[in-house]
Amino acid sequence: MSAVRTVLGDLPPAELGVCDAHDHLFFASPRLPGEELRSGSAARAELAAFRAVGGGAVVQWTPYGLGRRAADLPALARESGVHIVAATGLHQDVHYDERVLKELRGRLAEVFVAELTDGIGTSGVRAGLIKVAGGFHALDAHARWTMTAAAEAHHATGAPVAVHLELGTGALDVLDLLCGELGVEPHRVVLGHLNRSPDPVVHRQAARSGCYLAFDGPSRANHATDWRMPDAVRALADAGYGDRLLLGGDTTTASARSVNGGPGMPYLLRRVAPRLAAAVGEELVRGILTENPGRAFGVAWRRP
């Protein structure tokens, strides 16, 4: 039976509710000095604000070594009434000290599997997805290493693989590697940040594989992609891929949190969803926020 693996246990997909399919409660990277998401009280307030506008679930894509604070997530889920899904996986190498990467050599897939089945560290919190990352229009050796380990962990557990696409690029290379060479089932792959590169041809080619396509995060002004996102979603829906689309907020900096004056998690439901509904209809948006995440992250879990 399919289940979404939340920090409070496995959940039937139909009970997930309105889902922010890609966001961060905790995140700390040397690439973003001074903008770390480390405050438990701020995370609690952000979840409360999200819940107040109708939010029911958040999928945290923060992977290994970037301040996940897995032990704090169950209490936050219970207090807020928002389901939380945690991640294992590994980001691009620029987010890590070389010492950390050396320690993972030869055992990366083993780490992923352990965090999916036994729990993250000593927290007992099991991850519900594997997050990895590509590069800008390419896959370097680090990306191939992490995706190979992710594929091995997927085959052992059934876990979905969520992919950060750098500025929305490289989607087809990722699918060629994960699904072509490494045998990951396409419907177990989520491609993130497609809103950052609104190429309708690539979007359709990726969707044709059977993967999920995530439009996640309000763009920076100079990217000029927010206003094009409804057209991209409409084009995919018109082509028959409306059941493969996801929406997320991807809050990665402290200043972006709503409690600090930024858009934060509530922005997804307060502004993005109504804007999208005006373009493609409320029924489709409702499905993208509720039904699609349950299918994308709901798994018939296997134990190796």
UniProtKB/TrEMBL annotation:
Coiled coil: none annotated. Gene3D superfamilies: Metal-dependent hydrolases (3.20.20.140). Zn(2+) 2 binds at residues 131, 164, 193. Binds 2 divalent metal cations per subunit. Keywords: Hydrolase, Metal-binding. Its cofactor is a divalent metal cation. The modification N6-carboxylysine is found at residue 131. It comes from the Bacteria. SUPFAM superfamilies: Metallo-dependent hydrolases. Zn(2+) 1 binds at residues 22, 24, 131, 250. InterPro entries: Metal_Hydrolase (IPR032466), Phosphotriesterase (IPR001559). GO terms for molecular function: hydrolase activity; zinc ion binding. The keyword Hydrolase applies. Belongs to the metallo-dependent hydrolases superfamily. Phosphotriesterase family. PANTHER family: PHOSPHOTRIESTERASE-RELATED, PHOSPHOTRIESTERASE-RELATED PROTEIN. This is Phosphotriesterase.
